[in-house]
Specification:
Helix content is about 35%, strand content about 15%. The protein is α/β, with parallel strands linked by helices.
Length: about 290
C-alpha cells in the first residue's frame, strides 16, 4: 500500500503527551486542512487506541478534515495507570479534558464506544464548552443486580503465574466476551449471536490485556459504576446515538431511553463496520466544520 495514500494506516502517527500521571499514549491523524474541529475517539475496554485505527481512516475518507486523535485510556494500552486506586468515570473524563488542554484543543467532537462512550458522555456533561458534538456508540445503565454482578466478576485482578496460566486466562477472557454477556455467565440465556472475531483480533486484544494486567480493571469497573442516564440531562451538545447491527441488543434497546433524556438527541442505525459508522458520524459532525 502506498504510504502517501490518505487511507493508509501509515498516515496514523503515534505520540506521547505528558499528563500528571505520566506519558499518555495516543494515535493521531494530522489535520488534512487547518481550521477544523478536532475529533477525539475513545476506545472500549479492555483494549487500546489500536482498535480505533480503522475508524480514524474511515472518518478521514468520509470527509472529516480536522485532526483525529485516539488516546489510550489511563490504565490501558501504553498509557500510565490512573492515579486513584478506584477512579470513576469523572476522573477519566477529566484526564481527557486535560489531554485536550495539553494538545492545545478548544472545542472537540467526541466519539466513544462502550467504556469510551461513558467517558465521552461525562466529558460532555461535566466539562462545559469542551464538546461541540458527541457520538455515543454502545451505552446503557444496568439494573442493580446485573451491575453488582459485573462489578464483582467482570474484570478480575489476575497475577502473573510461574506456569503462564495468566496467558491462557487472558486469551479466554477475551474470547469469552464474544460468546457470552456477561462473559462469566456461560449459559444459553447469555449466549451472544455474533461471529467470533478473527484470530488476529483476539490475539491483539489479548496483548492489550496482558500489557496492563494490573490496571485494566480500573476503567472497566468505573464504566460499570457510571450512571449514564443520570448525567445525560446535563449534556448540551447535540448527541448522536449509534445502533450498530452488530451491537448487544440491550445496548441498542437503551437508545430509546437515552433519546428521552438528551436535550438534542439523534439516532442512527448502522452496519457494524468502521466505514458504516463513519458514514453516519461524518454528516452529523459536519465533515467540513
Amino acid at each position: 500500500m502506498n504510504p502517501n495514500d490518505p487511507s493508509s494506516p501509515a498516515q496514523i502517527e503515534r505520540a506521547f503527551v505528558r499528563l500528571e500521571e505520566g506519558q499518555l499514549h495516543l494515535r493521531r491523524l494530522p489535520a488534512a486542512e487547518p481550521g477544523h474541529v478536532p475529533v477525539l475517539l475513545l476506545h472500549a475496554s479492555p483494549a487500546s487506541s489500536w482498535f480505533q485505527q480503522d475508524l480514524m481512516l474511515a472518518l478521514r475518507a468520509a470527509g472529516c478534515r480536522g485532526e483525529i486523535v485516539a488516546p489510550d485510556t489511563l490504565g490501558n494500552g501504553d498509557s500510565p495507570p490512573p492515579s486513584p486506586d478506584e477512579p470513576d468515570i469523572a476522573y477519566f473524563a477529566g484526564s481527557m479534558d486535560r489531554l485536550c488542554d495539553a494538545l492545545g484543543f478548544g472545542e472537540v467532537d467526541a466519539y466513544g464506544t462502550h467504556t469510551g462512550a461513558r467517558i465521552a458522555c461525562e466529558l460532555a456533561a461535566g466539562h462545559e464548552g469542551r464538546v461541540r458534538r458527541l457520538v455515543l456508540d454502545g451505552i446503557t445503565e444496568y439494573d442493580d443486580d446485573l451491575r453488582d454482578a459485573v462489578i464483582a466478576n467482570y474484570a478480575p485482578v489476575v497475577e502473573p503465574d510461574e506456569y503462564g496460566r495468566h496467558l491462557i486466562w487472558a486469551f479466554n477472557f477475551c474470547r469469552d466476551q464474544a460468546l457470552f454477556f456477561p462473559h462469566f455467565m456461560k449459559d444459553a440465556g447469555h449466549r451472544l449471536a455474533v461471529p467470533m472475531p478473527p484470530a488476529h483480533i483476539l490475539h491483539r486484544i489479548t496483548l492489550d490485556v496482558l500489557k496492563t494486567l494490573d490496571t485494566y480493571p480500573k476503567p472497566y469497573i468505573a464504566a460499570f459504576r457510571y450512571r449514564a442516564f443520570e448525567r445525560m440531562a446535563h449534556i448540551a451538545a447535540p448527541t448522536l446515538l449509534l445502533k450498530p447491527e452488530t451491537e448487544l441488543a440491550l445496548l441498542n434497546a437503551s437508545v430509546a431511553t437515552a433519546m428521552g433524556l438528551l436535550a438534542d438527541g439523534h439516532e442512527a442505525s448502522t452496519g457494524g463496520s468502521a466505514q458504516a459508522k463513519a458514514a453516519a458520524i461524518a454528516p452529523f459532525l459536519g465533515a467540513s466544520a
